[in-house]
Amino acid sequence: MTTRWLSPEEQRAWRAYIASVALVEDALDRQLQQEAGMPHLYYSILATLSETPERKLRMTDLAEELKITRSRLTYAVTRLEKDGLVGREDCRWDKRGSIATLTEDGMRVLERTAPGHVETVRALLFDRLTPEQVGQLEEIFTAVSEGFQGEDARPTAEDVPWRRRSGKSCS
Amino acid sequence: MTTRWLSPEEQRAWRAYIASVALVEDALDRQLQQEAGMPHLYYSILATLSETPERKLRMTDLAEELKITRSRLTYAVTRLEKDGLVGREDCRWDKRGSIATLTEDGMRVLERTAPGHVETVRALLFDRLTPEQVGQLEEIFTAVSEGFQGEDARPTAEDVPWRRRSGKSCS
DNA sequence: TAGGTTTGTTTCAAACTTGAACCAAGCCCC
DNA sequence: GGGGCTTGGTTCAAGTTTGAAACAAACCTA
Are B101 and B87 in contact (CB under 8 A)? Predict the structure, then answer.
């Protein structure tokens, strides 16, 4: 089939998107590196753990939630563990499993740096959009994310809150 | 001042955005790694050069266009040079300058892989959006990019097409 | 229940990115 | 016309990411 090139409008949208993503991620990384001594992804790991009832999540679930590879997560958690911000527990029910937990120190770092982070997100993104655009943003990227179902994501939510994927739980 | 936390809607938008960006970039990187043997950024370097009348651009301008650091670009161009896809020329007017040029081989790789790339971009993004949403996407990220003016971007377009920043040209 | 497959996680080497430092080369101005 | 500042680019070390391979435990199934 002959290529369906992007229309001029699509091209403009694509370019604006690509440029913005780069700029926003860089700004976010720099801000968090400054304030929290870690890049955005690492902060997100802490944040994700903190939102869980017990502040723990299995590696695979955490990786899936953050849309990153397990190997990338392993590396990141190892670093955060060295910094004392997260810990690892063995999963009692599935001896293969490893559970990342947010430590008290990790929680403190998060609480200390969250306001600055949110402020940055606002400055970079939300402050520049109208309320309608915020809604549009949500719809657009919800649609985009949904395009990936099956490759990842799976059903979700399970009996044990920090264990969201397959039917089994642990710890 | 007390932190302006994100509203539930803003949070949903932010999360959907973050997740989508990760998924889209990963998919794009994988696709291009497969078809072109290089990650998305490297492909973008070739693409950007190809859109220039003479298929050459000064390093700084290229970096600015792509919103990346000069050092990152230096590394990338060095790799692409090894692969024979881009070359470096000295700038005759400003002896400090270095000009990246797209080679014939580079152009061929681009032409061969562009259709697959565009198809992927469609599959990941545009095929999932309504025409109105494409327009919204453009407006949203144009607004976001504009938030960075002054930190980068500068005036643009100059007398010599592949030299877009300061008043001088070369080669 | 042994053997084979799948799943959860880590490991390893190679590739890439970051930021600070460095080296020229242009510029400015007294 | 010789400092001193700025700009264009590269280099270097440290940190991060990638993808494939390695392992181990769990899960079939004959």
Answer: yes
List the CATH number of the domain containing A132.
1.10.10.10
B149 SS3 class: strand
Residues in chain B with CB shorter than 8 Å from the CB of A62 are none
Q: Which nucleotides of D are covered by protein (CB under 7 A)?
A: 7-12, 15-21, 24-27
Which helix (H) or strand (E) segment is A99 a member of?
strand A98-102
- Cα–Cα separations (whole angstroms), residue B132 to A19, A138, B20, B28, B126: 21, 14, 19, 24, 11
pLDDT given for residue B158 in this prediction:
34
Q: Is the CB of B78 under 7 A from strand D?
A: yes
The span from the CA of B10 to the CA of A145, in Å, is: 16
Residue B170, domain member (yes or no): no
| Distance in angstroms (rounded) separating the CA atoms of residues B132 and A143 | 14
A170 in a structural domain: no
Pairwise CA distance, residues B71 & B79, whole Å: 13
- Alpha-carbon distance B71 to A171, whole Å? 46
Mean pLDDT of chain B: 89
Cβ–Cβ contact B150 with A under 8 A: no
Query: Given pLDDT bands bounded at 50, 70 and 90, which one contains residue B2?
Result: confident
Number of domains in chain A: 1
Q: Is residue B123 part of a domain?
A: yes
Nearest to B78 by CA among B32, B42, B25, B114: B42
Interatomic CA distance for residues A73 and B22, integer angstroms: 14
With a cut of 50, say whether residue A164 has pLDDT above it: no
Tell me if chain A has a CB within 8 Å of the CB of B30. no
Whether residue A141 lies inside any domain: the answer is yes
Taking a C-beta distance cutoff of 8 angstroms, is the pair B140, A133 a contact? Answer: yes
| Res B149 pLDDT > 70 | yes
State the residue range of the domain holding A91.
22-146
Interface test with B, best of A6, A24, A62, A130 (most B CBs within 10 A): A24
